Amino acid sequence: MAADEIHHTLAYELKYRASLVPSKQGAMVTISVDKGELLKHLRFSNSRGIYSNIRANGKLTITGKQVDWVLPKEGAQLSYFVLLTNKRDTGKFDALVTGSWAIFRGDDLIPAIHTFEAAGAYSVASLEIVLPEKWGGVETGWPRKKDNLFAIDNPDRRFDRPTGWMIAGEIGTRRASISKTSIAISAPKGEKFQRMDSLTFFNFVWPEVHSAFKNTPKKLLVVGAGDPMWRGGLSASNSLFLHSDRPLVSENGTSPLLHELTHMVTRISGASTANTNDDWIAEGLAEFYSFELLYRADGMTKSRRSKIIKNLAKWGAEVKHLRKSKSTGPVTARAVVLLDELDKEIRKRSNNKYSIDDVTRDLMKTRKVSLDDLHNSVEKLIGPKIDALNSSLLK
Questions:
Q1: Measured on CA atoms in the order 168, 174, 179, 180, is the torsion positive or negative?
Q2: Coil, strand or helix at 202
Q3: Which of 253, 193, 228, 202 is nearest to 97 (CA)?
């Protein structure tokens, strides 16, 4: 048997079908698999209690909050109802299904699943979203195959899962293709989210995003909405949410949109132990690039950039340690100042051959990073005895 034939025989078709049910603020979901001998068994947690009416052929076992499904060899099908609306704070939602639109995450639609597969088996996956009557459309961070059907392909995993932000209903969308990335900006009709402003912003900043990080997504979805959605920004693997009251650029010169975009593209998070928390690295990099990319795109002057750094230094002046707690505003501000000093040191010692971009791209491979990871990454570029990382803030 040829190698490509062997490869093909290890593929199983994985179909997700989600029918939105506004009256119940959720969706009916069906997961279908054509070859149960390849995807033999899966398990997921219902610890939040958002999945109900769970049914399946084959062998289904629900023990407490754990769901186990042993698939039949042919025609395997699992179904359930998922509650999508989620209240984050009093009166504020980070996922919401209304009578005319829905904003939610695929991470909730399809739970994180632990699979037991035949050796080498992998999925060929798609997601179909069925809309209520009179609902206009749907958008996700995944490539559209046709109509409301999306191709789900995560190169990092054999079992493809449709994560990220999704929006459906009476929505308006603006689209563009920039530096080989398809960008969609979507918001419910009638909301004050400035779709064209955001798209114009991306047109001149995105080339700098691609230059800094190199590994940018094929598709990006930005979802916006006003109250009662949570007043902030939240990133996912291929998409992000931004409240309509959040400006593209704040009065202090940083950009909430570019901050979340940096989180989304780099996927860097801080490692933590019982005694230390390196969340400052992820938050510091996101805030650093939130104005640095704008500066590189000629969106601000050098003097304005210097003023931003100076103001962030003032805001974080009382911070004594960066590694002791989750990165709050002053901690993040002080982290940005340290990272700016680190960038200058890297450029000087390498005669401008390297910059903090090289470090960030290296950390993107690790994703969950610690101070040691940061130190090792910089040392590979300029050698030991790194002044910026010898700060008392990191002791």
A1: positive
A2: helix
A3: 228
Round to whole Å and give the CA distance between 59 and 62: 10
The Cβ of residue 83 has, within 10 Å, a number of other Cβ atoms equal to: 18
Task: Please report, for residues 104, 119, 187, 237, 240, the alpha-carbon distance to residue 83 in angstroms, rounded to integers and kept in the order given.
Answer: 10, 34, 21, 22, 21
Q: What are phi and psi of 267, to 5 degrees?
A: 55, 25
Structure tokens at 132: 């209520």
Q: Tell me: the pLDDT tens digits for 256-282?
A: 999 999 999 999 999 988 778 999 999
N-to-C CA span, the chain: 59
Ranges of residues in the chain with a pLDDT under 70 are 1-7
Rounded to 10°, the helix 279-296/356-366 angle is 140
- Which residue in this structure is represented by tokens 């009179």? 134
**Token duo for residue 120:** 């080498």
Global pTM value: 0.90
pLDDT at 7: 55
Read off the tokens for 140.
């996700």
For residue 57, the 8-state DSSP code is: S
Write out the DSSP string of 79-142.
Answer: EEEEE--EEEETTEEEEEE-SSEEEEEHHHHS--EEEEE-TT-EEEEEEEEEPPTT--EEEESS
List helix spans (H) across the chain: 3-9, 106-109, 195-213, 256-266, 279-296, 302-315, 329-349, 356-366, 371-382
Residue 392 DSSP code? G
Contact 327, 336 (CB under 8 A): no
Q: Which amino acid is at 75?
A: G
CA 344/CA 359 separation, integer angstroms: 13
Tell me the backbone φ, ψ of residue 9, rounded to 5 degrees. Answer: -70, -15
Say what the pLDDT of residue 272 is.
Answer: 86
Instruction: Give the tens place of pLDDT for each residue, 334-388.
Output: 999 999 999 999 999 999 999 999 999 999 999 999 999 999 999 999 999 999 9
Q: How far is CA 331 from CA 88, 105, 297, in A?
A: 23, 29, 27
Residue 368's contacts (CB-CB under 8 Å, 6 or more residues apart) are 268, 269, 270, 271
What is residue 4's predicted lDDT score, i.e. its pLDDT? Answer: 42
